[in-house]
Amino acid sequence: MGMMHVYLKDLVTLLSLVSAMASMALALEGQLPLACFFVWLAWVFDGLDGVVARLTKQKNKIGPHLDNTVDLVSSAIAPAVLVYAAYRPMLGLYGALALASLPAIFGVLRHARGYASPAEATNYWIGLPRTYSGMAIAGYLGSHLFAFEAGRWAGLAVVVLVPALGLTTIPWQGRHHKGLKPHQIFFMLSTFLTFVAGLVAWVAGYGLTWFLDGLTLWMFGYVLLAGLVAIPAEERQAHRAFVTEWKKGL
Questions:
Q1: In the chain, what are the domains?
Q2: How far apart are the first and last CA of the chain?
Q3: How far apart are CA 148 and CA 151, in angstroms?
Q4: Is 99 strand, coil or helix?
């Protein structure tokens, strides 16, 4: 029996899984900001595996399935564990467990939906991608906002509504979308620079929370701009037509 082919790109994908495992372990050890950071790190490795694949020209059948499965862990299961750890003092064992189950359930359902009827649209995701909802949750839980009681109550809506957007058919711009409008470019650039400023503040010794503040703004900027606000009417109509056909495969 021959062994399956595992390439360098697949090892990079597995680093995303290791980062997700580290995130969950750190969350349960009470190191929530660092746990949130490792969710972001998992996303970095998730993006790097594609770069490595193109540079090395490596391709195998297991790669896409491995990537999608690891995404489920790093973008749905790990953030759910963060939610449990963050809300355990406030809601108690069963309340925190019930709340944490929701992003996990939404993520698993999106995972199953993708396998049942893979989408072939080039410009838009169907529903908010797991990676972005997972980072939005992680960023918020580790941000300065969550340190306030009002922020923790507001976080309940974040934890429930953001991953639920993944089960909708709302279009969100994909990573390879072409023809961005000037205001889209401006907002994405400004939110990205805010994220970079947070990273610089962290490296300069001001604390990891500033980095997570930038991550939060970046993620919620994407949620609002790339899906709910700035898609032209004609492209939204074309997306609806595509979704109508795509649903037939579910």
A1: 8-249 (1.20.120.1760)
A2: 35
A3: 5
A4: helix
| Cα gap 148→250, rounded to integer Å | 42
Q: What is the pLDDT of residue 185?
A: 67
Q: Which residues contact 166 (CB under 8 A, 6 or more apart)?
A: 106, 107, 110, 127, 128, 129, 130, 133
DSSP lists the bridge partners of residue 126 as: 171
Question: Which residues, including other chains, have CB under 8 Å from residue 142's CB and lie 6 or more apart?
Answer: 32, 33, 35, 36, 37, 208, 209, 212, 215
Beta-bridged to residue 117, according to DSSP, are none
The answer to whether residue 80 scores a pLDDT higher than 60 is yes
Per-residue pLDDT of 9-23, as tens digits, reads 889 899 999 999 999
Tens of pLDDT, residue by residue over 86-117, are: 999 999 999 999 999 999 999 999 999 888 77
CA distance 194 to 205: 17
Give the global pTM.
0.87
Rounded-to-integer distance, Cα 170 and Cα 242, Å: 12
pLDDT of residue 62: 84
Going by pLDDT thresholds of 50, 70 and 90, the confidence category of residue 246 is confident
The two structure tokens encoding residue 48: 């790097």
Q: String of b and e for 16-52 (b: at least 16 CB within 10 Å)?
A: bbebbbbbbebbeeebbbebbbbbbbbbebbeebeeb
**pLDDT for 189:** 72
Give the separation between CA 38 and CA 16, rounded to whole angstroms.
9
